[in-house]
């Protein structure tokens, strides 16, 4: 009897480990695919978490907006083990990966919500938050939705809390420099593709072909059927709108030629 119980326990543990490894592989694959487009991705995450720690300390309470597979939260919790995070997304495939990758970690709560819905915040646990973070996501929103979201976030942060948004933010005044960067990026991406790193389209094709993700990928395809990029805005525009939305101050926390991280203090 004792031997049977031991074998059963061992089998269960082995299954759990294999399940975790499966989801971890998908998480690493997502990170590699995102890094294919954003070679300075880790640097912007470092700056972001520096500021979160400065505001919230070792037990910061964070809202991870459009969290995807939880890439920001993974780095946050590795750096600040006492922190907690609420991740919000609508993509069922990415949420499935996040749920599997963070299984059993009570520091991360996942919420399914559409940021285009004026009532999206009703699904959140009670606030306020020390910080709201997001990366390479809000450019999907139409301008009206983005402006409404800024106002929502100002109300979700505690006084002194910070909103950090790292996203595409091209500089129209430097077209030749922008083209040089694009050329350099294409060369790097070609080399990484030859080494086996998947592009966005290739990654989603692989996810759709995986039996455990196929249904979620089909569901997200239905949700995003009419999805397209929102309007392109300059950094200056973003900062002006954040002040208008109720933040006390707003500035630039990080910048590359094509991307920027805006920071707004409640």
Largest sheet composition: 7 strands, mixed
CATH architecture: 3-Layer(aba) Sandwich
Secondary-structure class: alpha/beta
**Counting H and I runs of at least 4 residues, what is the number of helices?**
9
Strand content: 15-25%
Give the count of structural domains. Answer: 1
The CATH topology assignment is: Rossmann fold
- CA radius of gyration: 20 Å
Uncertain runs with pLDDT below 50, 5 residues or more? none
**Which strand order do you get reading across the main beta sheet?**
3-2-1-4-5-7-6
CATH class placement: Alpha Beta
**H/E order of the elements?**
HHEHEHEEHEHHHHEE
**Proportion in helices:** 40-55%
Domain Methyltransferase: 62-161
Protein name: Methyltransferase family protein
GO molecular function, one term: methyltransferase activity
InterPro entries: Methyltransf_25, SAM-dependent_MTases_sf
Describe it for me?
GO terms for molecular function: methyltransferase activity. This is Methyltransferase family protein. InterPro entries: Methyltransf_25, SAM-dependent_MTases_sf. Residues 62-161 form the Methyltransferase domain. Keywords: Methyltransferase, Transferase. The protein has 266 residues and is an alpha/beta fold. It has a single domain (27-265), classed as Vaccinia Virus protein VP39 (Rossmann fold, 3-Layer(aba) Sandwich), CATH 3.40.50.150. The chain is built from nine helices and seven strands, in the order H-H-E-H-E-H-E-E-H-E-H-H-H-H-E-E. It has helices spanning 2-37, 41-56, 71-79, 92-101, 143-156, 175-194, 200-209, 214-223, 235-244; strands spanning 61-65, 84-89, 108-112, 129-135, 157-168, 249-255, 259-265. A seven-stranded mixed β-sheet has the order 3-2-1-4-5-7-6, sandwiched between helices. Helix 4 links the parallel strand 2 and strand 3 (108-112). The radius of gyration is 20 Å and the shape is globular. The termini are far apart. The model has no long low-confidence stretch (mean pLDDT 92).
